[in-house]
Amino acid sequence: MNNDAMIEYWNGAAGQKWVDQSDRLDAMLGQFADGVLDAAAIQTGERALDIGCGAGVLTLGATAQSGGSIGSLGVDVSTPLLALARKRAAEAESPATFEHGDASVYTADDKLDLMISRFGVMFFDDPAAAFANIRAQIRTGGRMAFMCWQALPLNDWAFAPFQAALPLLREAPPSPDPTAPGPFAFADKDRVAGILTEAGWQNSSIEPFETEITLPGDDVETSARFMLQLGPLSRLIAEQDLDPQTILNAVIDKLSEHAETDGRIKMKSACWLVQANA
What we know:
The chain has eleven helices and seven strands. It is an alpha/beta fold. Helix 9 crosses helix 11 (about 245-255).
């Protein structure tokens, strides 16, 4: 999927689903935003460039961390998510700003101090060129900190629902290109390091960030329905004309293996925390 296809995807039904589920998604992914901000160690008065900012949680957090008087800048291709980000900033009376743009070619009006991202940088058709352009927006001596997913099989929260549904598919989906734009495109840390070096970033550090994710929902069925709505299974169900209830039942059975005593679902996740200097 190239950049144009990704832009179309995030401005269609997928983008609206993320808006509709934004509060639940932000709760599920909150520890990763916190991890990026901890690594970024934003100083008073610094301004961050948040790539793939989505609904703006990380941009708002960076603005608060810098003292709240200078707004960080969030860039995203999704119009629906940016509208929510601006609404949140207005409600919080935050000076954070948001612009619609493809980060692979976006040019900021002024140099920023650092780049940050929570799962927003794995979707570029030409990642080395994109990261070179991002570096050009950061001042000399600036830095980056972002989070990306490790391989899909290491992320039980995403892999287990897919495994549950696989025997029920009319045909197995083709094996994806592991380097194609998508959530798990940066699973290979050596590839990521090579991309950053080619793009001109220096002193890169790529460390594992592994924890448990609590899925949205107070019970197994609610969590399973959430995963069907936002995960890849929703596309497979439509493409193969499958019975959603049959798939849902299989996912419920699988997720039940991970249920806590309170009914919530906790599952393993594995990310890379990536840092480098401009």
